[in-house]
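yo

u said u wanted the structure for the complex thing, so here. seqs first:
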Amino acid sequence: MLRTLRALPTMLRVGLAEAVAYRAEFLVWLLSTNMPLVMLALWSAVARDAPVGRFGQKDFVAYFLAALVVRLMTGAWVIWELNHEIREGTLAFRLLRPIHPLVAYACENVAAMPLRLALSLPVAAVLLFTMGGAHITHDPLLLALFPITVVGAWLITFLAMSIVGALAFYIDSAGSVFEIWMGLFGVFSGYLVPLELFPRWVTLLARALPFRYMLAFPVEMVIGMQSRALALAELSVQWLFVGVLGACALGVWRLGLRRFAAFGG
Amino acid sequence: MKRYLRLLGVQLRASTTIALQYRVEFLGEGALALFWAFWSLVPLLVVFGHRPAVAGWSFEEALVVMGWFTLMKGVLEGAVNPSLTSVVEHIRKGTLDFVLLKPADAQFLVSTAKFEPWRVVDVLAGLAIFAVAFHRMGRLPAPTHVLAALTLLVCAAVTLYSLWILVVSAAFFVVKVDNLSFLFSSIFDAARWPVTVFRGAWRVVFTFVVPIALMTTYPALALLGRLDIRAAALAVVGAAAFGAFARVVWARSIGHYTSASS
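structre next:
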């Protein structure tokens, strides 16, 4: 444990250096997160004449810009690495190191965060100035909790990816499983459509699934669409998901590793 | 000409045989394509659940655009994407040598190297969406409109393919372009909406930079009989010019190929 903590700063530095080294590639990846902007344009067109539910044109702008920021800050790509390394057998090198591979992956993903922040903060600034602050929650407690909800959202994303990625120990097409996960994410996280605008039963169902806590919850909280009591309740649900997924990830990882044969390694 | 048709037949057969070897994956990918085709209707249903029309498009008309999107996606991921991804791989590893040595046009060979037959599911799903849309409108598209739409489909495919050739040509200079393909599909995703929904900068990007308007909105308008003849003619001329441009760029870029491995 202590050893892992001591290694953390170095691993983060290495990760950051990697992200900077491939900055052009990094930029292209970021640019491909353009879905919130497309949905922003679409929903603004829909709300041009009259608001949809609680959402007027400006609310949609605030919602999807916030969604873009949260999405950029909660990006993870561990599944592709895991898939690749398990199949090619290069995971063996990671297993030799005295640090849990999941921690190492997490470091690599987190280390790119400063670069991501540098790109998403301007968006956040635009959001603040064009909306005149009217669409940012006025509750100081919720504003202070926002970073925690983003961390929780990132953890859920990362852990879910690790679990699906670890399926590569068992099956060849873990990528397809992840595609289904992404499909469900698109609808149940509020990424394409704010969850309130769905029929009521979908909204309720979304509350019981992890996807909402990866995106919609931090977004709705920070643009002030949630009361304090509701936000606190949802925060606990979010971290409950983090705990459950964390335990699952460790378990799946341990079981899967027994089957790992380092083909070709 | 006849020789190239025969070559195309051979390449198609090879791809199908390879695909059939992995039968479980074949079924899985087919099912996945079906899942995506219908799952991506969800936002459309929600939008039109709140409004009878958006930016002058009724639900049925927007459904026709969605049908074209699904169909073009099938074309993109079934016929265009796989081959050109493997070109990038060839350039990086230097194995493009083997293709260049063959006594046939290199652009033709690399463009037909790989097909993914299960993407036919997308095309069928697109046709099913058309059927539903026109059934709800209570009419059949006029034969002339179908003909115009088919012409525009060819234009759209040519444009899509030319864009891809340009991306691949970039690979001769910068090598790592596989994430460009990812960027491209993420932009192409916007083609599921009628282009008139977008305004300002997006409109410009979608009409001139990545002409997704030409790929889905125009064919849909043609099928609905709302496309005026001038726009259609412009689309045909534009697609042809774009194709010729891509061909020239490809011919020039291939001169920069240095066979990386040796």
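The CA atoms of residues 85 and 91 of chain A lie 5 Å apart. Chain A has a mean pLDDT of 85.
cya
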